[in-house]
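Late entry, evening session. Most of the bench is empty. Finally got around to the prediction I had been postponing all week. Sequence below, unchanged from the version circulated by S.P.
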Amino acid sequence: MQGKIIAKSDKRALSVSMLLMFAVFLLILPVEPALSNSEVTIFSEDFEGVFPTDNGWTIGDLTANNGEDYWGATDYKAHDGSKSGWCAQIGTQLVPNTIFTEDFEGGFGNGINGWSVGDDEPSGTTAYWNDVNSAFGGEGTHSGSWKAYCAGTGYGG
């Protein structure tokens, strides 16, 4: 059997083909997934500037039967910068809708009112929740004379 001589142009073509195959191989390798406890920002909006025009939002009220209500920017509880979004910042809500009420009368955290109070904080610090008298903190209550209060994390109770 005789050896075959490969021309210089064939060597180049073979080299280019091998490089392309290697590049394709690298592209189809599986990518290592992100760690399960890493944080990923899904959506972020700072509501700065003239809202909604500077931010690309379209706002409106699809059911204006009870007055127009729609999203607007406010300086209340800004996450970053000086503004945040508020779902009924603009408009007049003529019919109030109570979503949730609880007067915390008769005990809290002992299951009497259907509450189960605990701490799911995985960092080892504990959050202290309790029911407190309406005079506590000087804020009053919605109704009744008791309210729920969280002293924050790391509080021993």
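Two things to note before I forget:
The longest strand covers residues 84-91.
The beta strands are 69-74, 84-91, 127-133, 146-153.
Will write this up properly tomorrow.
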